[in-house]
Specification:
Elements: H1 3-18, H2 23-29, H3 36-43, H4 49-59, H5 69-72, H6 80-87, H7 90-109
Helix pairs in contact: 1-4
Amino acid sequence: MERTSKEILRKIDIQRKLLGMSQKEFSLKMENGPQWLTKIKQDGREFKVNNWVKAAEVLGVNPCSLLPDDIIKNLNNENIEDAIKILTKKGFRIILEESEQKESIGDDKG
């Protein structure tokens, strides 16, 4: 597992425990099976950006606070777009563009 994914999972565990939330509860709030978080850790799978953003939402924190400390200190104002650019891969860009499109559609309805 990539170091960034491990660090995100470590920070999720800290925040989850502070909230008194079990791994099972967290997995279910993430709209996954009850063993989802456990399996990610055991299988060494990468933690995907859409899961990162959703995890922050479930935990009630800024997604940037779940990033590794060395990435956070390179961000000027904990801007999520900057964080995604730092971590960017082709798939990450698509998620960002989709969320921007949803926001602009929502603004038009307003």
